Amino acid sequence: MNIENIRFNDTINFKINCAENVNIASTKLPGLILQPFIENALWHGLMQKEGEKNITIEVTAIDHAITLSITDNGIGRKKAQEKSEKKSFKKDSLGIQFAQERLNYFNKKYSTNYTFTISDVHDENNEAAGTRVVFDFSKN
Fold first, then answer.
1. How far is Cα 100 from Cα 82, in angstroms, rounded to an integer?
2. CATH architecture type of domain 15-137
3. Which sequence spans correspond to the domains of the chain?
4. Residue of higher predicted confidence among 7 and 53
5. Are 46 and 8 contacting, i.e. CB atoms less than 8 angstroms apart?
6. What is the pTM of this model?
7. Of 17, 65, 76, 107, which is most buried with the most CB atoms under 10 A?
């Protein structure tokens, strides 16, 4: 995140909030599983946004299930898709697909049931106000 923020002239407000009851050291995750989601937040959501740019990672635990969310206040998935369709050079984005495949492999190997969901964030006027990715790191 620090390296990417250099490209943005340190205009990204990045926060990590971790609940006290979460033992991060004891949680096994596939390597670099968060990277494509943070890159998407930066390049599709925040790069094209005017004004304040935020990415927040929240880590919480209920019982033994850890939840991690990545929330940005970017332009939202619909506007990002519209802008992408207007580009003359199009490329397939495979980062999320590869992340899902790695998560599936990890789940089989370690008998976990890790999942993620992607949703839109809306403001009080129901306008697009960013994107949220929520990981559920639960064991079977």
1. 24
2. 2-Layer Sandwich (3.30)
3. 15-137
4. 53
5. yes
6. 0.88
7. 76
